[in-house]
Amino acid sequence: MTAAGTGVLLKLGGELVESATGRRDIARAMHRLRESGPLVVVHGGGREVDAEMAAKGIPKRAVDGLRLTDRDTLEVVVGVLAGRVNTRLVAAARVEGIRAVGLTAADAGVSSMRRADPYTAADGSEVDLGFVGQPMGIEPPVLLTRLCDAGFVPVIASIGCDTDGQLLNVNADTLAGHLAVRLCVARLIIAGGTPGVLDEHGDTIAAVTEGLLEELIADGRASAGMVAKLIACREARRGGVASVRIVGGKGATDLDGSPGTTIGS
Ligand SMILES: Nc1ncnc2c1ncn2[C@@H]1O[C@H](COP(=O)(O)OP(=O)(O)OP(=O)(O)O)[C@@H](O)[C@H]1O
Ligand SMILES: [Mg+2]
Predict the structure, then answer these.
(1) Is the entire prediction scored with pTM above 0.90?
(2) Which ligand number lies closest to the CA of residue 156?
(3) Residue 1: what pLDDT?
């Protein structure tokens, strides 16, 4: 991201990096993207967090894909995302010769955050999200631009902290959209377990305009994690990211060749 409008922000859904094979494929896809310029990776890990919470007997609560995060949940989220998921992905990247650096958004102002305001859900209800972060700031994150300029690939777990040092859980799509704007990347690629945004028949919608995006959320064709994803894509487009795509990443070693949905005109 040496110049405005270059580089790729790749967001990986946790589902894609759960298995060793999945991580190998994704690392190959990262290598391919890296060949064309700077690359920054943000990852989630929702399903591994769910499994760990279930094992500990902590109930899961979420609204529009945003996890309601109490203290017990936060402990699990930090441990799983910043620990296991991040480190394993960095290790898989190394096999492909990628100089990956594992970080969270709490590192050196990658993303300053404050606690999110109560959330108004798609169904109109208002919900206190707990220890959930709202990324802030507009300036390019110096740590990321320096790492990219030096040939490293930052791999960021979706954890941040506020100015009091309180750790916060942030939806990985929300963080990815925000960083894509601040880094002025040319492309935001959100890779997940479904081949893009699906319609009511389960078919991939090739292109979603901003009008259709609002409709999908309002009429429930997009729900759960897809709501947070679409809102993040809308913010990235409004923030000047020229190309925003939601693509299927399962088994893909070339994400540009994956079926998916283009967001915006
Ligand atoms: N219209 C839709 N098209 C595709 N997926 C949808 C749609 N509506 C709801 N979904 C759900 O959204 C999920 C994707 O969001 P989810 O948060 O679960 O995964 P992710 O964001 O890729 O991973 P992570 O949260 O680990 O980063 C899909 O697996 C699907 O269950
Ligand atoms: Mg998600």
Answers:
(1) yes
(2) 1
(3) 62
Separation of CA 139 and ligand 1 centre (Å): 29
Residue 251's pLDDT is 96
Q: Of 178, 263, 249, 260, whose CA–CA distance to 17 is shortest?
A: 249
| Domain presence at residue 198 | yes
- How many angstroms separate the first and last alpha carbons of the chain? 24
Please report the pLDDT score of residue 54 as a whole number.
98
Q: How far apart are CA 253 and CA 139, in angstroms?
A: 32
Contact 249, 261 (CB under 8 A): no
Is residue 3, in this structure, part of any structural domain at all?
A: no
DSSP secondary structure code for residue 12 in this structure:
E
Entry field: residues in the chain: 265
Active site residues: 11, 14, 46, 173, 229
Q: Is the CB of 13 under 6 A from ligand 1?
A: yes
> Does ligand 1 come within 6 angstroms of the Cβ of 16?
no
Q: Of the bound ligands, which one is closest to the alpha carbon of residue 50?
A: 1
Give the CATH number of the domain where residue 84 resides. Answer: 3.40.1160.10
Q: Quick check: is 2 in a domain? A: no
In percent, the amount of the chain with pLDDT more than 70 equals: 98
Q: Is the pLDDT at 5 greater than 80, yes or no?
A: no
pLDDT at 4 over 70: no
Provide the token pair at 108.
């050196």
Domain count, the chain: 1
pLDDT at 258: 96
Q: Which range of residues forms the domain containing residue 170?
A: 8-263
Report how far ligand 1's centroid is from the alpha carbon of 223 (Å). Answer: 8
**Using CA atoms, how far apart are residues 170 and 157, in angstroms rounded to an integer?**
9
Question: Nearest 10 degrees: CA dihedral of 44, 48, 49, 53?
Answer: 170
* Atom number of ligand 1 nearest to Cα 216: 1
